[in-house]
Amino acid sequence: MSLESIRGRLPDYAKDLKLNLGSLASEPVLNQQQRAGTFVASAIASRNAELTAALIAEFGPQLSPEALTAAKAAAAIMGMNNVYYRFTHLVGGDYASMPAKLRMNVMAKPGVEKVDFELWSLAVSAINGCGMCMESHEKIVLHGGLSKEQVQAAVRIAAVVHATAATLDAEDALAGGVQAVAA
Predict the structure, then answer these.
(1) Number of structural domains in the chain
(2) What domain range is 88 assigned to?
(3) Contact yes or no for 2/56 (Cβ under 8 A)
(4) Active site located where (predicted)?
(5) CATH number for the domain including 99?
(6) Of the listed 73, 77, 130, 134, which one is catalytic?
(7) Catalytic: 43?
(8) How do residues 1-22 score in pLDDT, each as one tens digit?
(9) What's the start-to-end Cα distance of the chain, in Å?
(10) The pTM of the whole model exceeds 0.85
(11) Which residue out of 133, 134, 157, 161 is catalytically annotated?
């Protein structure tokens, strides 16, 4: 499976997603590692097995083994952190001042440049809707030398990958429902 096969699976009503996937795959504002890692981390966060496999097949070879592992780790750790910190932010009270007591060692030693790992964490946080995490990671990447255009590009990738996953899930559900009704 490849990016082109995913684009081919998208229905006509999702033509904008097809076009955006194509243009973002060569987004010039991000370097190859930043772009590829954002696609990988965003695919994992979007929870569609077919899309994840296709985007890792497409973008994984553009990453060193360490960077591929770091992109996967960003999706994993932010999957946990986004839930926890979204809770503390939304509920408020004493929770925000209590220690998290969750292991987050990979954030200290991600195996790639810290700014790239933080960019991937920001993209995943955008997908998962954690405002507190998005603000924190955006501040770190800007302080690390990335531009607002680079942040925007990563979030655009996250948005399109997530929308693609949702569309594929919907199409699969509709196809399964049609088959179930026909049977």
Answers:
(1) 1
(2) 3-182
(3) no
(4) 130, 133
(5) 1.20.1290.10
(6) 130
(7) no
(8) 899 999 999 999 999 999 999 9
(9) 29
(10) yes
(11) 133
